Amino acid sequence: MSKPNRRFDVDGFPSLAAFISCDKDRTSAIFKRFNRLAARNLLILQSELAELQSKLDTYDREDQSSRETLQSLRNWEDYKARDGMDSDRMKLVTQIRTAMKEYREALLFESTLASVPPPDRKTLKAFRLNFFHGRPEDSTSFPMLGGHSSDLYDDPDDLVVLQAPEPPDRLTMFVQDNFGYLFKEKAVGGASPDSLVGFASGKKIQTFISYLSTIFAALLLVGAILVLYKTHSDDVKLGLIGVFTTLFAASVGLLTNAKKAEVFGATAAYAAVLVVFVSGNLGS
């Protein structure tokens, strides 16, 4: 049986779409925010609503001319029937409903998008390497997309990644930056064979970090107990408790994403275990 041919995607939209979709962790789903256009759209919508509101206020001032018109402002049926549904006033109400709905939906969309972080530095660098068929500064490189789309990925502050992973801790970032090649995985659906970017499995890295953190935490606890058990001088024991507590606090604060309160709580619990071990005279 002959082996199936590897898929080859035509350069341009097909190859870029294949590259974005072949990452299992979805970290390559990077798109432009268009922050300037979004702000322009909101400004236009709010100005449109301001004009519609001014027209409606004009109608309200006109309705103060008589008791009958004032009474119509208290009852929807009278308000609707006074000029008819085809009147300019009712058309204005319909325009306000439409513009208000569009404006508030745009506000909610922008609020949601504002909470999505941009791609991290290394991921964007790999993305641009593939997008430009090499280093962007090289004279032989050229973008996958032409025209005004060629500079879509030039501004990192105007980009958004759809699948935003949790902020990595320093230990995870160190492993990703220096040992990512140890956690390679195949691309989903078969990436184009001329892709310049490899994929490291985020799940595999997280599993490795979990095992490593567990071992490191156990060593700090068991190692401290063994050292204190072999130490007979009370003054030395107190000094060792301070040293191990400092090491534990530094490891939790620097190698994890723990908040300050969590760091204080974990350090206090760790120090309490060591103090109880020493004060309980368990060694004898």
TrEMBL record:
Signal peptide boundaries: none
Membrane-spanning segments: 208-230, 236-256, 263-282
Keyword Transmembrane helix attached: yes
Claim: Coiled coil is one of the keywords in the record: yes
Domain DUF6594: 13-275
Segments forming a coiled coil: 35-62
Keyword line: Coiled coil, Membrane, Transmembrane, Transmembrane helix
InterPro entries: DUF6594 (IPR046529)
Protein name: DUF6594 domain-containing protein
Provenance organism: Coniochaeta ligniaria NRRL 30616
